[in-house]
Amino acid sequence: MATSSKKVVKKARPRKSRIDLAQYARLRTILDSLDIGALRYYLDARSAAEREQRFEKLKSALLPIIREIWNGGEGLADCPEGYIDCGGVCVPYQCVGSEF
Predict the structure, then answer these.
(1) Which residue range is the domain that position 32 belongs to?
(2) Tens place of pLDDT per residue across the chain (100 aa)
(3) Residue 62, in any domain of the structure
(4) Is 3 part of a structural domain of the chain?
(5) Does residue 42 belong to any structural domain of this protein?
(6) Which residues, 6 or more positions from 58, have their beta carbon under 8 angstroms from its beta carbon?
């Protein structure tokens, strides 16, 4: 007995305008730097207390940006299809950790 698998094909959203590839690449570079820089900043703390302070500093700086990007500053309403609400942020994977 043969089984068939159905692939889910997502339709791309129509773009309102052409993407400036140089600008897109610069944004990716900025985000990559933020990603690795934030992790290094957090991990390079000399004590658990300092790590906690750094975590809170990063969280307080980054969550308002995340809220603005996902919902115009109004907080997280609902994550789009394919994303999971993980403690108030949308991610494309299951939450990890005890706070979620």
Answers:
(1) 21-74
(2) 555 555 555 566 677 889 999 999 999 999 999 999 999 999 999 999 999 999 999 999 999 999 888 887 666 668 889 999 898 889 999 998 756 5
(3) yes
(4) no
(5) yes
(6) 38, 41, 42
